[in-house]
Amino acid sequence: MSVLAGSLSENLGYGLLVICDSRANFQDLPDGAPGAGKGRSFISSVDATVINVQHGSEGDVTARLWTAQEDWGRYGACELGVTSISLPSGVVVIGDVLQERVMRVALEPGTYRLQICADEPVNAATIDLVLVA
């Protein structure tokens, strides 16, 4: 069973949604942002993931964070992929790339599997993030 841990609906000006530990350093992120025509809808490091979403000029983006034990379920119209994220601080931060529009959710410290689902495979307006301990 999944539980909705938080939701954010904001204009993400640069078209990038960031999911990270509250103390992330972003040093291990691959070079270059994800995006249409680049062959990847997201990039990940140990403590951060950056997802290409619709640009702020096209409207708001809704991001929902789900926590689950084992039930991945199906969220959104498509799955963009699965990665892992380390949250040693126990606080996940989800928001824009400048960290001006964010939500913070307290979780148990640890490493989680992160399933990324969306309403569209490119320039998504709705993102569902499922964290499984």
Task: Characterize the structure shown.
The protein has a single domain (about 1-130), classed as Sandwich (Substrate Binding Domain Of DNAk, Chain A, domain 1). About 0% of the residues lie in helices and about 50% in strands. It has a five-stranded mixed β-sheet with strand order 1-5-10-9-6, with no helix packed on it. With about 130 residues, the chain is an all-beta fold. It has strands at about 1-10, 15-20, 40-45, 50, 60-70, 80-85, 90-95, 100-105, 110-120, 125-130.
List descriptors.
0% helix, five-stranded mixed sheet, five-stranded antiparallel sheet, Substrate Binding Domain Of DNAk, Chain A, domain 1, 133 residues
* Element-by-element helix/strand order: EEEEEEEEEE
Largest sheet: 5 strands, mixed
Order of strands in the sheet with most strands: 1-5-10-9-6
Helix-residue proportion = under 10%
Give me the number of helical elements: 0
CATH architecture annotation name: Sandwich
Enumerate the spans where pLDDT stays under 50 for 5 or more consecutive residues: none
Mean pLDDT metric: 90
The CATH superfamily turns out to be Competence, DNA-entry nuclease inhibitor, ComJ
Bin the strand percentage. over 45%
Give the count of structural domains: 1
Task: Write a brief caption for the model.
This protein has 133 residues and is mainly β.
Blueprint of the fold:
Layout: E1 2-10, E2 16-21, E3 42-44, E4 48-52, E5 61-68, E6 78-87, E7 91-96, E8 102-106, E9 110-118, E10 126-132
Parallel strand pairs: 5-10
Antiparallel strand pairs: 1-5, 2-4, 2-7, 3-4, 6-9, 7-8, 9-10
